[in-house]
Amino acid sequence: MATVKTNACIILLTFLCPYVVRSFPGSQPQPPRSTTSIPTSPFAPTKPTCAPLPPHESIFKSDLSLTSKLPGNFDLDTWASLFASLDEDEAVDYWIEDWEGVIPEDLHGTFLTVGPSKYERGGVPIKCWLEGDGAMTAISFDKGRVHVKARFIETKAYLEEKVEDRFLYRGQFGTMKTGRHGWSAFKDSFFKIRLPPLNAFDMKFKNPSNTKPLYWGGRLLSTFETALPHELDTQTLETKGEFDFGGLMRPGEAITSADPVLDAILQKKSGHAFTAHPRIDKATKRLLGWSWKTLLPKHFGVPDPRLWRSAKGKKNRTESRGAGLEVTFYEWDEAFDLPFPPVTIRVSDCPSPPHDWVVTPNYYVWMQSAFRLNLLPCVLGLKGPGECMVPVKEEEARAVVHLVPRPGGRHAGKPPVAIEMEPYFMTHWSHAFDVEGDGEEGNKLVGFAAGWDKSLFSPANDDGHMFGHTYRGAPDFSRLPIIRYYRLDVDLEQKRASFVAVPPLAKTFLDFPKVHPRFEAEGAPRHVWAMACNDRGVSSPPQGYVHLDLGTGLVESWHAPSSAAALAAARQASSSSLPSMFVSPPLSLSAVDMKWDDTRGELSVEDRTKHIVVGEGVLAPRASCEPGKGGEQEELDSYWMGVEFNALTGRRSLCIFNAADIAAGPLCKLHLQHSLPWGIHSEWAPGLLVAVPAEREQTGNVIRNKDGQ
């Protein structure tokens, strides 16, 4: 029985991602644009450190005639069509030969994107898109030439399941191991428990390695939140295997008792999980990350789960209240050596690791949200861990912001600070900075992140569990609370913390906020870019990008339009030539859906934007820009890029913007030849060139008009 209880604790290894959640009340009217200055600490203006961007006039200026700049009009069926499996036998390795606009020649590096790319085995679909096997796409830029390579991340589970053509591992969100005849324990029918012995008491979950790319110290990694990352070859994208950071970590079930005797018993099974969101501190030239383990409750051998341990071995103990989390923070230089000893903290009543975190020169910062777990269905093999996550009741919900002193910082060696605050679920941080003063604790800290407020914990959203709502395998936006951009203020002297929606974006549904990578862990940058869904306060797929100036409160946005020529071609196409739905028949478009305007020879503006979405954007500093000068100009001397997905034509296009003026539209669009699924995270890897041949005939950039002529 003790073994069963020990194994049951593994279900705490949950994978938190914002796009599969619950319902949200109806829409609200669009707010007026605000130009109110947001209190922050922007850099003082400096002289430009780089030559101005070339005067490329965008050939993709939006022709939207709608009241809202980000209207949020979308078609749920075409959104779901983007979640179709990549062909496992297709060799994705080609030069970009079809583009519009001018490819910037001062881009030198690789746009990396990772996401779920295999959604079924043996005709049986996964239960949630987040469980799909990961694939890496690398789009490399070198002197105006662009090369594309993509490949599945061949984890141990992926290779085994490919041979058997069935699920051999359980997923975090409810996908179960299947029998040899394709039977499934999660069938949405009365007979969903017909194979409980196949999954019951099996707490070994799959690592699809599908979350975020990372390039550091000459190594290319792909991460997943409840396991170790995988290392890929930087030229071929072949999978080398799980990456253990030079023996610091080991694969296995991420559990610990904090008791030497019991841990010795667990040694053969216990391992580490590594964050899916490592950070890079450009100022110190270090990779920052953390591993975690589920901390077994007191009756399993933990005397005091809420304790912390620094490099000096100091301890601070309080009353134990239940199972928790052990988190160890690391900093690596470019040789993957540790300049400082790791810092470990232990926190009770924390059923899952933080999804994201942020770093300042003095602190590691992460948020603990209010959830409880209904463990029995997972132990019995009826649900995945993610399906067992239940928010605490609104009146009982509290969040905790944790600030762990960083080695080498002003407060190194001091105890961590934990401050309770109103319920808040953070999805992704953009940045944070210290506001130093004469106080012993450093006075204040300010952070910015996308997330949900206490409405997430409202009874109106209580439908039984936290994750799992999908529509034909895609995130169901009819049941998704909107994500806003918030400012977090922490007063370390008064031990108080609060958050407020950033006023100009109070009604904008957005996520994946980004600042210039130079200022991600240092300073107080003025400019923030993000993937945006709409500015009407409702739920919809991502269909554009926003750029916020924190110094003035001014916001500019771009909504993904489509050219009339592309839509005319889509109208002529038969339904069989259009992308397939997620485990569904091919998408068909009726005359009503198309809303063809014969007088203009094209779709109506409102309708043709319903079928286009975008992926996470990244900021790519110009290769010709002198780094390290600081100031607003360095932030703006960059390109913003992200993938546009057109569900009507099946075309995927990488769009490149002048980061200082995204409202003008892309400088160019690079049309991809392979069917890239909508992914999770993307990154810019400066200097990395994946599989780019040394010699190639230079054909020159081609300037085309909107119709591709």
From TrEMBL:
Cofactor binding remark: Binds 1 Fe(2+) ion per subunit.
GO molecular function: carotenoid dioxygenase activity; metal ion binding
Binding site for Fe cation: 277, 355, 428, 681
Signal sequence annotation: 1-23
GO biological process assignments: carotene catabolic process
Region (Disordered): 26-46
Origin: domain of life: Eukaryota
Keyword Iron on entry: yes
Cofactor dependence: Fe(2+)
Keywords, sorted A to Z: Iron, Metal-binding, Oxidoreductase, Signal
Family: Belongs to the carotenoid oxygenase family.
UniProt protein name: Carotenoid oxygenase
Organism: Nannochloropsis salina CCMP1776
